[in-house]
Design brief:
single chain, alpha/beta, Spore Coat Polysaccharide Biosynthesis Protein SpsA, Chain A, two-stranded antiparallel sheet, 9 helices, about 40% helix, globular
């Protein structure tokens, strides 16, 4: 697995490497009215209007009760509600559901996912994810990593990563424990990657994708890119318990370990290419 740095890539130079491919940036969002607008504005201004690198900004609104959708539309994004996409397939919940539906309705040949709660978002987040994909034919999936300050102190974020995700990966998928941020919400891939793997509903989606993509396409097709510093809403400890539980259940499920009776099941959407 190779590592890159977002500062090694220039958006205007990547346009030539892009060729005829379309690029979609997808933002799953729930109640992110404070941050989703500025994020969309950065992408539209710097990567669509100033430099024609990105072709589509798609926000999948996952049941927001605030002004998330209105802010995103005003900033220039295409907005769809999660429950409006393929309702014939039945209801689903959580971030993984919103991401899976972004794959269904987006138009890009290359898809980049970014979280909608980032407070210091800059164009380098997208450029860093796209750079390796557009300049290297052997790279098909790029995971972002960054420093995550916690309460102003550098290097102290990622509590669930270090206390739950990394130890679980070390036990069952040791090669994947070397990813700097296995739970990062910033990553990109060619469409065929995202269409070929299932999406776990809820908080298990990131670790599920990491495991499934490695199993299906191999570590040689995967890379990570340093995106700098990421500042977002740090959740209190009690709000992290559901996330930690979902990650544990997802890793155990992928390892073929039976969950205890009464444990919440791991729900997932089938690969998008199976719907054709």
């Amino acid at each position: 697995m190779e590592r890159f740095d977002h500062r090694s890539f220039d958006a205007s130079l990547l346009v030539a490497s892009k060729g005829e491919r379309r690029i979609s940036v997808c933002l799953p969002a729930r109640n992110e009215e404070a941050t989703v607008g500025p994020i969309v504005e950065v992408i539209r201004t710097e990567l669509m209007d100033m430099v024609p690198l990105v072709d589509e900004v798609l926000v999948v609104d996952d049941g927001s009760i605030d002004g998330t959708a209105d802010r995103a539309v005003a900033a220039g994004a295409k907005v769809v509600t999660a429950d409006s996409v393929r309702p014939d397939l039945g209801p689903g919940t959580g971030k993984g559901e919103a991401m899976w539906k972004a794959v269904l309705v987006s138009t890009g040949d290359v898809l980049a996912f970014c979280d909608a709660d980032v407070r210091n978002f800059n164009a380098g987040f997208v450029v860093g994810l796209l750079g390796p994909l557009l300049t290297r034919s052997d790279v098909r999936f790029v995971k972002g990593y960054y420093d995550r300050p916690y309460e102003g102190e550098a290097g102290q974020g990622g509590r669930v990563t270090e206390l739950v995700a990394r130890p679980m990966l070390e036990l069952f998928h040791p090669a994947l424990s070397f990813f700097s941020q296995p739970l990062a919400g910033e990553y990109a891939a060619v469409r065929e990657i995202f269409e070929a793997v299932p999406f776990v509903e809820g908080y298990g989606v990131e670790v599920g994708l990491l495991i499934d993509i490695a199993a299906r396409f191999g570590l040689g097709a995967m890379a990570e890119c340093d995106l700098g510093v990421r500042i977002h809403r740090n959740r209190p400890l009690h709000e992290l318990a559901p996330q930690a539980s979902a990650i544990i259940r997802t890793v155990l499920h992928r390892a073929g370990v039976d969950l205890p009776a009464g444990a919440a099941p791991v729900l997932e959407r089938a690969p998008a290419n199976s719907l054709r």
